[in-house]
Design brief:
about 300 residues; alpha/beta; Beta-Lactamase; Rossmann fold; 2 domains; 6-stranded mixed β-sheet; 5-stranded antiparallel β-sheet; globular
Amino acid sequence: MIDVDGVEAVAICDRNGLIIATESKEESENDSLIGVISAIIDSSLDRIKKEFGTESNFLNITSTGDKKFAVASQGPHSILTTVADPSTTDMQLRVYSEHIARKVESVISGTENVAIEIPEIIRLRSKFKDGILPSGVFNQKLILVGDYQVGKTSLIRRFVQNSFKENYISTIGVEISKKNIDLSSETQIQFIIWDIGGQKQEMQPFRKRFFSGANAAFIVVDRTRPSTLENFKFWNKSIKEVVNVNIPTVIIGNKSDLIDDIVVSKFNIKKIADEYGYRYLLTSAKTGENVDDAFMYIAYKFLESV
């Protein structure tokens, strides 16, 4: 509500419609807004179950007179309902609802140390072309680079399969994954994700072939190992030597769940991001913290050039 002027109230309920928490900007209107939200949930629940079945992730935005309503879920335990005035764009409601719904799901699932700060990337996404997306199916080659054991494979597995494995197996060479994302009924991004091994010397002869044709890049840093941030310049230079155009690049500060072991601060990462004109995001492949947001941001940035 603080970040989006037009949002008037929010509520969280479980999959049976039981309200868990509510908040409104005007305390005097809280009771009436809760009544409105309860009515929305009651009328929407059967339709949601019919349309989305057992799907964990969904978003529906409707308008009725002087109000807009967004109903979103990003997991099996909760539904986030947002009440806003008509000036709030569908893109704002989509981006913020999906982001907050993921956070809510993490909290309800018992995840510890869930960051409640809304990243700058979310604010930027919410302003994308006033919500107007180009129509079509778009292929995007995204490369993930960085030292060995920074979590590149785990980030991809979390995004593509929504899973995490504790055991570490180093990627030798490259692994390619695919995932299709529907940004709207008429816009689809087909991600082709290249997970490039972090062996700097051994992979040097193959790097040109791996990087060629990339539309976007993640440079991944392990927040528990300062050397991985120090090697940022190496990986950035390697990309620039092959990809001659400026492609959307995000510095990913991974393993943010390891609170007691973090030595690479947000300030450290932001300083380099600002120096190079890149965006950054702090993630955890283990908990899923901000992982989807990183990939979705890069999808929208790619569409800006279409």
